[in-house]
Amino acid sequence: MIGPMNSRLAGTVASVWKQGDSSLFGTLWVLAACLATLATLLLPGCSDPSRAHAVNVPQARDALKFALDEWKKGEKNPKSLASSSMPMIVQDFEWASGAKLVDYQLLDDGKAEDANLRIQAKLSLSGGQGPSKITDKKVWYLVGTSPQVTVFRDMLRR
Q1: Burial code of 118-141, b = ≥16 C-beta within 10 A, e = fewer?
Q2: Is 158 part of any domain?
Q3: Rg, C-alpha atoms of the chain
């Protein structure tokens, strides 16, 4: 079945070529040129892997301590740290939902992973379950320093 189809197609192409109608071939060449141009534009982006800036470990640790100290002092909104003396973007859902930080402890020096410092902390929180109930929690933070300082609670690690 494939053999007769191929010979029929070849016969059609040959007859078009003999008649001088090159519109089919012109269309194919335009399509091939467009595909070659597209490949030339897209492929160089894949060949040179750019790495993120390495994290500045002391700056990242100081940023996390600053953010947690502000929360402990009673700062109600983590977004307010964007305009603080050490500007940063902070995301912590418990902080944003109104939990109060009674105390914290950084459990290690952290591990630099490309553009982030992954660091574990123990938080003592109150709120949400009554004013006198204090809950201890071990959590992970991802802290970046470039191009802007960021402090994010790592919700995927528990």
Answers
A1: bbbbebebebeeeeeeeeeeebbb
A2: no
A3: 30
Please tell me whether residues 86 and 25 are part of one structural domain. no
Question: At residue 146, does pLDDT exceed 60?
Answer: yes
Which residue bears the tokens 């600053």? Answer: 66
Residues 6 or more apart from 112 whose CB is under 8 A from it?
A: 54, 55, 57
Same domain, 124 and 62: yes
Residue 85 CA to residue 73 CA, distance in Å, equals 15
Q: How many structural domains comprise the chain? A: 2
Entry pTM: 0.67
Helices 2-18 and 23-42, packing angle to 10 deg:
110
Query: Is pLDDT at 33 greater than 60 in this prediction?
Result: yes
Q: In this structure, what are the phi and psi dihedrals at residue 110, rounded to the nearest 5 degrees?
A: 90, 165
Banded model confidence at residue 133, pLDDT cuts 50, 70, 90: confident
What's the pLDDT at 48? 47
Amino acid at 20: G
Q: Which domain holds residue 75?
A: 57-153
Matching residue, tokens 């490949």: 39
| pLDDT number for residue 37 | 76
As a whole number of angstroms, the distance between CA 136 and CA 139 comes to 10
